[in-house]
Amino acid sequence: MVDFIGQYYNWFKALHIIAVISWMAGMLYLPRLFVYHVGADKGSELSETLKTMERKLLKFIMNPAMILAWVFGALMLAGNTGLMQQPWMHMKLTAIIAMTVIHIVFGRWRKGFERDENQKSAKFFKIWNEAPTILMIIIVIMAVAEPF
After folding, report:
1. Exposure pattern of 130-140 as b/e (b: 16+ CB <10 Å)?
2. Is 119 helix (H, G, I), strand (E, B) or coil?
3. Are the beta carbons of 114 and 55 closer than 8 angstroms?
4. Distance of CA 141 to the CA centre of its chain
5. pLDDT tens digits, residue range 63-116?
6. What is the pLDDT of residues 17-39, one digit of tens each?
7. What's the angle, vertex CA 27, arms to CA 22 and CA 32, rounded to 5?
8. How is the chain split among helix, strand and coil, in percent rounded to 5?
């Protein structure tokens, strides 16, 4: 198995990067949709359109992209076990776990909008829109600069 992973390591890395880009696009866009949704009247055409957009973004882009990012990342770790000895990798994985938790929380908030039960403000979602950006910066610095 390790030989197989080693042989296709660069392909796994490329697919991992594609999945991460797709996941991040959704993680940055979904809370922005929430900001717009807060301002929409419940039951309005805009509200129903945003519900559809939010559901499809999560179901067809974000969830598959997150899963693929984890799968290809895990394959890369399996092919290069020395990475787990690096302190920067532990920091990166911690940030990835935090990103995954935020993804799950975004999914719960989407369900609240779906049921017309959201009680949070546009400002709340604008602030949370920054969390994926901060985590992305940490993850990229850890992966590229390997600072420690």
Report:
1. ebbeebbebbe
2. coil
3. yes
4. 17
5. 999 999 999 999 999 999 899 999 999 999 999 999 999 999 999 999 999 999
6. 999 999 999 999 999 999 999 99
7. 125
8. 85, 0, 15
